């Protein structure tokens, strides 16, 4: 019979998993998240097949962009975290893509009107002004983003009651897109059930998705993690709800 891991063993396991890239395969059997109905990756791949020059902003380790089967003639990506820049450069080499190290809030290192398609999955920050600048007239920005109050139940389990900020609201995204001169042509929003089966999954998730509990460390939140561990043992998986929205905007000709 397999021994049940102790609380300390689960903490150590969650703290020891590498966090480079956006590969979430480690969570198999440990945590699950309902996927948005629209299927961002497939929609992005279809748009890439029709593009002539495309940019993926904040590509992570290039995991999503690597699914492209017919890359455009010009393909570029940006990423801010050095380990991911290296990982994405290797992964996307087969597509002929160039990967630039660019801070999330920085100007994009490309001339005006460089791309007819700009995409981004779960950007930390959306520089609508820069997206509008590098898009060609008639070009498209296509993005899946984290919405307001995503996994807020987990935030409050560790931090106590917290106000839900509106920085990631769909209303704000639409207003910023229009302010940059773009026309929003599609907007969808969903709330998605997320389950954590053990505290190791919680620890790894909070190390990887750093904005859920800002400044998270195992040492700082040991007591709260212990309480969550006891709750999962008594009640089963901890349930939270992720929020996602899909936005597509065009630059007028």
Automatic annotation (TrEMBL):
It holds the Pfam family Methyltransf_11. InterPro entries: 23S_rRNA_MeTrnsfrase_RlmA (IPR052939), Methyltransf_11 (IPR013216), SAM-dependent_MTases_sf (IPR029063). Residues 55-142 form the Methyltransferase type domain. Gene3D superfamilies: Vaccinia Virus protein VP39. It comes from the Bacteria. One of its GO terms (molecular function) is S-adenosylmethionine-dependent methyltransferase activity. GO terms for biological process: methylation. Keywords: Methyltransferase, Transferase. This is SAM-dependent methyltransferase. It comes from Actinopolymorpha pittospori. The lineage of its organism: Bacteria, Bacillati, Actinomycetota, Actinomycetes, Propionibacteriales.
């Amino acid at each position: 019979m397999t021994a049940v891991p102790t609380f300390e063993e689960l903490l150590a396991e969650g703290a020891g998993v590498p966090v480079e890239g956006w590969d979430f395969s480690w969570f198999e059997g440990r945590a699950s998240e309902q996927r948005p109905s629209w299927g961002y990756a497939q929609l992005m791949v279809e748009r890439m097949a029709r593009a002539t020059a495309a940019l993926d902003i904040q590509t992570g380790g290039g995991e999503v962009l690597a699914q492209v089967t017919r890359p455009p003639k010009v393909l570029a990506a940006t990423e801010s975290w050095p380990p991911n820049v290296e990982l994405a450069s290797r992964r996307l080499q087969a597509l002929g893509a160039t990967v630039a190290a660019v801070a999330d809030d920085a100007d994009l290192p490309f001339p005006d009107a460089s791309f007819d398609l700009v995409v981004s999955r779960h950007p930390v920050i959306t520089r609508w002004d820069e997206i509008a600048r590098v898009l060609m007239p008639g070009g498209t920005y296509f993005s899946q983003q984290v919405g307001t109050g995503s996994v807020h139940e987990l935030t409050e389990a560790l931090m106590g009651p917290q106000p839900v900020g509106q920085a990631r609201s769909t209303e704000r995204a639409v207003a910023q897109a229009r302010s940059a001169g773009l026309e929003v042509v599609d907007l969808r929003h969903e709330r998605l059930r997320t389950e954590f089966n053990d505290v190791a999954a919680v620890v790894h998730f909070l190390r990887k998705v750093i904005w859920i509990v800002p400044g998270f460390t195992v040492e700082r939140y040991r007591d709260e993690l212990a309480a969550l561990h006891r709750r999962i043992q008594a009640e089963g998986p901890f349930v939270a709800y992720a929020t996602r929205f899909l936005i597509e905007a065009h630059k007028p000709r």
